[in-house]
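Re-running the complex after MR caught last week's input typo. The corrected sequence lines follow. Everything else is unchanged.
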Amino acid sequence: MRLLLVEDDNHVAAAVSAILTRHGFTVVHARSGDEALRALLPSPEKEQDPFGVVLLDLGLPDQDGYEVCGKIRKRTTTPVIMVTARSDVRSRIHGLNLGADDYIVKPYDTGELIARIHAVIRRPGAATGGAAPAETDLHLGAVHIDLPTRTVSVDGTAVSLTRKEFDLLALLAQRPGVVFRREQIISEVWRTSWEGTGRTLEVHVASLRAKLRMPALIETVRGVGYRLVAPA
Amino acid sequence: MRLLLVEDDNHVAAAVSAILTRHGFTVVHARSGDEALRALLPSPEKEQDPFGVVLLDLGLPDQDGYEVCGKIRKRTTTPVIMVTARSDVRSRIHGLNLGADDYIVKPYDTGELIARIHAVIRRPGAATGGAAPAETDLHLGAVHIDLPTRTVSVDGTAVSLTRKEFDLLALLAQRPGVVFRREQIISEVWRTSWEGTGRTLEVHVASLRAKLRMPALIETVRGVGYRLVAPA
DNA sequence: TGCCCTCTTGACGGGGTCCTCACCCATCGG
DNA sequence: CCGATGGGTGAGGACCCCGTCAAGAGGGCA
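Corrected-run output:
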């Protein structure tokens, strides 16, 4: 699960990040409120998994942490856990009323942090309540892709794809015309930084081209990667 | 919204109850773990609104408060907030890992209590009480699901499902056709972030397929999860 | 207390997916 | 024209994932 860590101190961020990574989270680090908001909002460019939870430090340089929390709540339903050194009750109530799901006071026990994160993300709706209504249907000429149901059809007839095939197609289809580099595709679809020595990627591309019966749809960019040709 | 207050001390209960009532909650008071569990379980006789949240004091006479929390979590998905004088980190982590949604240490500020209650019940999906009138009946071809009474019938004949079976079916039925990931199902139905190694999920799916006499209704999406096939 | 229902776990097996490997072809630079 | 580089292709086998079965733990109810 992806986690957004909002923290201006790089040393603290590195330490916390290490702990969270060890517990299975993919940590994205934002150093300011602006950066956090930009990372949260689904931009047309990068279509990634939505964040499962936000760890928001209130001591930010550019803007008030409470304000950031409010803005996050206005746009998404992603759970927010406030982290701060301010221990007074007033601040806690203020934070919670702004839409925060929990409020932890520094210094905190790392075990408790993990436990509270899990408590927040297991609440019903948290799993589905990612970012704002992202695009779920993609049309590319005759090809129609439905993300939630993981179904693909060409000219109206359904096509059965395997997991890797679908993930690969979905990735490319999010930015038609844009070239994805090989290593980028590997890391997104395979979720591992292992750079294969084999022909794995090519095999899956070939399979996709065959199943979609449109070999020209996926274009090879020699020495770089692949891209989907944008429909006219 | 109805709130279940589990507290053995009558004086404390009266005081807290008054505060909560003033904030718009309908408070039901249970003096022991047994009483709490009996109040929570939906009896076929009295058809009442389900509880929106449980305030669980850990200092109970009859049984361990943690145990009670575990039992509650086993049967319902109602949010639980633990309230106790035990402030050590160990207890907090233990409580949260048992499925509690929050953990407040006595003595607490009443304003913070209210804020934390609101933070817990504000989650989308947690609104079993007064909020959005969610869909209560689901029809999928020959299968009819009634959420409030937790009854399921196929072709008009009733089918007896266990708790987990019903929760699983109800989850999938909420969005026919869309694929639910395994982890998502685990976290929603089991409400615990334990990543099981066993075959638990598959066993329940198999049981459901058999009882509904429609093996094709629940479709396996290899490497991802399951989904209900949308009716034609 | 004893029985039954539910849930969990583990072993086992089958079948679908994925990766590897070898070889082929296309492109590009000299 | 020729070699080097990098992608395309077609098997085959390994691995992974899921379905099934059986056994056991725990709680509920009489």
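None of the earlier attempt is carried over here. Residues 162-164, 196-200, 203-204, 222 of chain A lie near DNA strand C (CB under 10 Å from a C1'). The first helix of chain A runs from residue 10 to 22.
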